[in-house]
Amino acid sequence: MTHWEVLLDRPHATLRRRGRFVVADLHGPHRVISTSARNGGQNEHVRHLVNHQSCEGAGHDARFRTITEHGQEAYHDAVCREIDRSAEQSATMGTAANMSYASVVTLADGPVEVTTAVTAGVESNATCAGDPAQWRESPGKIEKVPHVAGTINTIVLVSVPVTPAALARMVLTMAEAKSAALHRLAAPSCYSSDLATGTGTDQYCVAAPLEGPPPLTSASPHMKLGEILGAAVRDATLEALRWQNGLEPSYTRGVFHALGRYGLREATFFDEMSGRLAPADFELLRRNSKAALYEPLVGAAAHALAAVLDRVRHGTLPASVARDATVQHAATLAANLAARPERWPEFRARLHATPDEGPKALALAAIALGWQEKWRSA
């Protein structure tokens, strides 16, 4: 137990961190539910919940092959040997995320306390439920297994007993809270134009003691247990993503974050803008792009445009109004970038006259229009 940093010490559990590992040691019998390859599902013999960095986020193919070639259960045993924990009594999770960025949040309602420890990364593996899948499992094999870096791993410790049904409901509330954090950040899916609800490799361990007062019977958001569980998981996920991916909420206001799901990406932006602006305007935008494209009102218009595009795509708004609705918000973007709100009707008319070539082309046209008119004399 030497050289471990204690993150939480309670009568029911101790949470420790060392190097590539965060471990919750459970004191006494617990009911545990987890995604662990070994000892997964619900049981009452697990005493150690293990989260660890199993590989680097990109290019760590040798490590990935070691894990897949030897099998998940053999890898589980190796992980437990490395930290001197019983493989038979441990539930493990792996991720490319750095354990130094693990976020621990504890909330309480009277004697009921919930602690969650989250590591999170979403840059390369964020998904929305229902997105096209990358894996297919058939009897005896899994086809096309990719090396993916993004994962949200969650440990939840509750201080009092809960019924098996309440434990299962805790998992649902936890998943909803994780998705709520991603939606607050407008985190995009890597596989579709939707906002992410999680990643394709998310894992969890949830534990509650078996001994104590009569067990709680519900972790619904209508109950205080569900409230503090949801808030703890949401806030810990937000904090973990802030450190791992730099997803500080204010940084997500920019045009690329808002409209990246529709093809407007920083990596290609200047190539796509070069023919839309006079050389002097283009160079001025290139040198001042952060100030222009992260300007709050510009970001607000970009997020509004993305929301309208979502509603059209999902059928909330009829396709017959799509062009008018999107042009109106693109005109707001242009007017805000130009700092000329009084010219919105003019900008709307000019953008309506551009070819209808999709959301990205409309956004590029709006940015070009707003920027070239910002310093032009009336």
What pattern of helices and strands is seen along the backbone? EEEEEEHHEEEEEEEHEEHHHHHHHHH
Distance between the termini: 72 Å
Tally of structural domains: 2
Name the beta content range: 15-25%
Number of strand segments: 15
Main sheet characteristics: 6 strands, mixed
Can you tell me the residue ranges where pLDDT is under 50 for at least 5 consecutive residues? Answer: none
CATH architectural arrangement of the largest domain: 4-Layer Sandwich
Computed Rg = 24 Å
* Tally of alpha and pi helices: 12
Choose one word for the global shape: elongated
Mean pLDDT: 91
Class of secondary structure makeup? alpha+beta
Strand ordering within the main sheet: 5-4-15-13-9-8
Molecular structure report:
With 378 residues, this protein is α+β, with helices and mostly antiparallel strands. The chain has two domains: 5-251, L-amino peptidase D-ALA esterase/amidase, CATH 3.60.70; 254-374, no CATH class. The chain has helices spanning 61-70, 72-82, 164-184, 224-245, 255-259, 266-273, 279-287, 289-293, 296-313, 322-338, 344-352, 359-374, and strands spanning 5-9, 13-18, 21-26, 30-34, 41-43, 48-53, 90-95, 103-109, 112-121, 126-127, 136-138, 141-143, 151-158, 198-199, 203-209. The strands form four sheets. It has a six-stranded mixed beta sheet, with helices on one face. A five-stranded mixed beta sheet has the order 1-2-3-6-7, covered by helices on one side. A two-stranded antiparallel ribbon has the order 10-14. α10 (322-338) packs parallel to α12. The mean pLDDT is 91.
